[in-house]
């Protein structure tokens, strides 16, 4: 159970809600639209990194967030027996080496965040049975967001005293395999594309920097009304529901959440090499 006032939490949650029904118009959507509907029992977890861009260097909050994604993916895959290559519609060669797939996938995600092609990433676990409205009941959602600051003067007085740990925060409920790991669950990984880098995406997302070609196959929308209703109910009883308290440093950038298929950025990548031919030695 989280600390803090319920009213303050509700304001921040409303500001940073992942409900993108206003941002995802029909003209911006890609393929079919899948709505993940939170319930009063949905567990939400947020990881927020503050990346400060200076004249000397780019501090590595993005690397730490990407490491959390890798660790959380491994935990989900291990505890509820997810076939990640199959769930991500990755090349079938990775079915025999899921650990390699997880590492390459996490590297791609780190580059997507660092290159600002995406602003957010979400790991989703929902029920296989849809609601009467055709929505996916959401059991668990772990989201990852990078806030970028350009001027230290607007954030802290002395950048040298700010540790990496203080610039990466995690809030909300944790994954519980007994609560969320029922065998009928469906896993998905969604990314929120940054419209500001759309013109450079085709050129920038190439091998060898990227191992996979990310092809959107459907738009994702989040319906968090049930969580907001639970928060309003909790205010009357002085209890706080299991929703996160994300950092409200700046408004979230507009963009479209999508599910994606993964193919190799080059056709011959990660295929076994043919055996060497013997050289003929002339006498």
Write structural notes for this entry.
It is a single chain. Helix 1 (6-15) runs antiparallel to helix 7 (225-237) and helix 2 packs antiparallel against helix 4 (98-114). The chain has one domain. The model is unreliable at 1-17, 19-27 and 236-251 (pLDDT under 50). It has seven helices and seven strands. Strands 1-3-2-5-7-6 form a six-stranded mixed β-barrel. Helix content is 25%, strand content 28%. Strand 2 and strand 3 form a beta hairpin. The protein is globular, with a radius of gyration of 21 Å. The chain is α+β, with helices and mostly antiparallel strands and 283 residues long.
Attribute tags:
single chain; 7 helices; 28% strand; disordered N terminus
Strand-helix topology:
Elements: H1 6-15, E1 33-52, H2 61-80, H3 84-87, H4 98-114, E2 118-127, E3 136-149, E4 168-172, H5 177-180, E5 185-193, H6 201-204, E6 212-223, H7 225-237, E7 256-264
Parallel strand pairs: 1-3, 1-6
Antiparallel strand pairs: 1-4, 2-3, 2-5, 5-7, 6-7
Helix pairs in contact: 1-7, 2-4
Count of helices? 7
Distance between termini?
82 Å
Structural class estimated from helices and strands: alpha+beta
State the total count of DSSP E strands: 7
Question: Strand count, sense and closure of the main sheet?
Answer: 6 strands, mixed, barrel
On the 0-100 scale, what is the average pLDDT? Answer: 76
Succession of helices and strands? HEHHHEEEHEHEHE
Give the radius of gyration: 21 Å
Give the strand content. Answer: 25-35%
Task: Give the helix proportion (percent range).
Answer: 25-40%
The total domain count is 1
Weakly predicted, low-confidence segments? 1-17, 19-27, 236-251
- So what's the overall shape? globular
Main sheet: strand order: 1-3-2-5-7-6
């Amino acid at each position: 159970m989280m600390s803090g006032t319920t009213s303050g939490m509700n304001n921040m949650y409303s500001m940073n809600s992942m409900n993108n029904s206003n941002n995802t118009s029909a003209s911006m959507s890609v393929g079919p639209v899948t709505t993940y509907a939170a319930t009063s029992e949905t567990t939400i977890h947020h990881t927020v990194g503050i990346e400060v861009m200076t004249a000397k260097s780019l501090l590595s909050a993005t690397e730490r967030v990407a490491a959390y994604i890798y660790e959380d993916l491994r935990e989900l895959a291990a505890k509820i027996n997810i076939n990640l290559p199959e769930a991500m519609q990755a090349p079938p060669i990775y079915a025999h080496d899921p650990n390699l797939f997880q590492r390459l996938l996490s590297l791609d995600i780190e580059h997507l965040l660092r290159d600002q092609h995406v602003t957010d990433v979400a790991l989703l676990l929902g029920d296989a049975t849809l609601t009467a409205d055709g929505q996916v009941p959401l059991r668990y959602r772990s989201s990852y967001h990078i806030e970028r600051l350009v001027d230290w003067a607007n954030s802290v007085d002395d950048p040298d005293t700010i540790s990496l740990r203080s610039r990466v925060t995690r809030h909300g409920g944790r994954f519980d395999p007994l609560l969320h790991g029922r065998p009928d669950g469906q896993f998905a990984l969604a990314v929120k594309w940054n419209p500001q880098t759309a013109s450079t995406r085709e050129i920038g997302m190439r091998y060898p920097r990227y191992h996979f070609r990310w092809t959107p196959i459907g738009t994702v929308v989040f319906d968090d009304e049930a969580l907001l209703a639970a928060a309003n109910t909790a205010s009357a009883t002085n209890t706080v529901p299991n929703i996160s308290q994300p950092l409200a440093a700046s408004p979230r950038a507009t963009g479209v959440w999508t599910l994606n298929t993964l193919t190799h950025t080059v056709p011959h990548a990660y295929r076994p090499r043919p055996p060497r031919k013997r050289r003929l030695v002339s006498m």
